[in-house]
Amino acid sequence: MQPKLKGIQYLTIASMLFGLFFGAGNLIFPVQMGQQAGREIWPAVGGFLVTGVGLPLLGVIALGLSRCNGLAQLSSRVGRRYSLFFTCALYLTIGPFFAIPRCATVPFEVGMIPLLSQGGEHNLALVIFSLAFFLAVLWFSLRPGKILTWVGKVLNPLFLLFLGALMVTALLHPLGNIQQIEPVEAYADSAFFKGFLEGYNTMDALAGLAFGIVVVNVIRGLGVQEPGEIARSTVKAGLLSSVIMAAIYIAVTAAGAQSRGSYPLNTNGGETLLLIANHYFGSAGGAILAGTVTFACLKTAVGLITSCGTTFHELFPSRVGYRGWAVLFCLISFLVATLGLEAIVAYSLPVLMFLYPLAITLILLTLFGRFFGNDPRVYTWVTFFTLAAALFDFVKSLPASLRSFLHLDGLVELANKYLPFFSLGLGWLIPAAIGLVIGVVIHLSLPARQSGEGI
Asked: Helix or strand or coil: residue 12?
């Protein structure tokens, strides 16, 4: 008889998955969104939950249902060359170039800087903190077989303990009435779409495609081998994890909105979290916040290093091995982290605006692939049109000075004129739909060809 997971095992896997997802951006971006959205918090939260919870869940489910052995195999439905490009780009983005370094700089910004002298340079302190952080990450990451124990049973419960103490206190004793808080202009005009794009910053839809195989491997390690049962177990664990994530996002966003009743708008979510923590717990607030953010970022960094190391070892088999990739990615992440949080966030946005449409279309095509026999031609046409449109979003999101230096403002004006929904950051929707129509028409009218012949 095929073994099935028990309730406590589902809970542990869900805790692990939540722990892998919920890191640096999952704290600083929703609380900042709450401050800016004010009384428009609910449509903003709705948009945020679509990209911050719904898409990551669908990514995990898509990988589980596809019965693929990872993102590389899944994206090979578009084409072998595209698979290598997209897999490397995605893992480097959620890995050593952006997400993992951010895991070190966020706890430093919100937990360590308040303890240091005000007004001075903190470059050396950032280097020392980042070095200690990534040594700890490397220690956990070199033991990937223990990821369920370390993240699901140790690091995540500690993080939830710290965060729970802060959020429950903030919601029971609100700093202000949300309905009286004026939203900033962007949220006053289109709160849902602004929240939708804000969810990109969490990088969780990208991470969902990466972490899906981690969940599948853990489930296999617990004795479940039948593909259908693995898929069902992945869906159940993903749903449970998503409920936890959604509840925390709503609480954190509400706390951020309420803080405007007593404090002015801050430049980033880290400052807002620190204000909330200090308001309720005084001098101990900084220590509680430092513990919360550090545990959140540590567990996510461990999951990302593990996923990146495993994937690159499979893509480029060599003498380096998993341990070598883990060491290399920790080293690169440490070097990027020394640039500081502001630089990392600024240069990650264009990449996210480019990759997210490609991830969204891949997830949706996988979920509904049975309706067109997973014909690679449909994947190819949708991806081609989506990629072309996403390039305009990439250009638009570049720092204004760099865009001007490269003389790319004309491209942005052209896209704003001819691409529907481009001003909302969704200029890829219509091109993707056109690609879908073309792909389906070809699928219905011409014989199928072998998988992997796409771009």
From this structure: helix
CB 386 within 8 A of CB 427: no
Residues 393-418, mean pLDDT to the nearest whole number: 91
Q: Pick the closest to residue 375 from 444, 305, 290 (CA basis).
A: 444
Closest CA to 443 of 363, 381, 358: 381
Q: 97: which 2 tokens?
A: 């170039």
Tokens of 259: 């803080």
Cα–Cα dist 210/70, whole Å: 7
Return the residue matching tokens 């969490």: 202
Highest-confidence segment of 210-219, 225-234, 406-415: 406-415
Q: Are 45 and 257 in contact (CB under 8 A)?
A: no
Amino acid occupying residue 272: T
CA-based torsion, 122, 123, 126, 131: positive or negative: negative
Position 71, amino acid: L
Q: What is the mean pLDDT of residues 4-9?
A: 83
Cβ–Cβ under 8 Å, residues 439 and 375: yes
For the record, the structure tokens of 48 come out as 């945020």
Quick check: helix, strand or coil at residue 29? helix
Residue carrying the six token digits 């380096």: 320
Q: How many CA atoms lie within 13 A of 421 on its CB side?
A: 13
The residue length of the chain stands at: 455
3-class DSSP state of 267: coil
* Token reading at 154: 């140790």
pTM for the model = 0.88
Rounded to an integer, what distance in angstroms lies between the CA atom of residue 442 and that of residue 97?
39
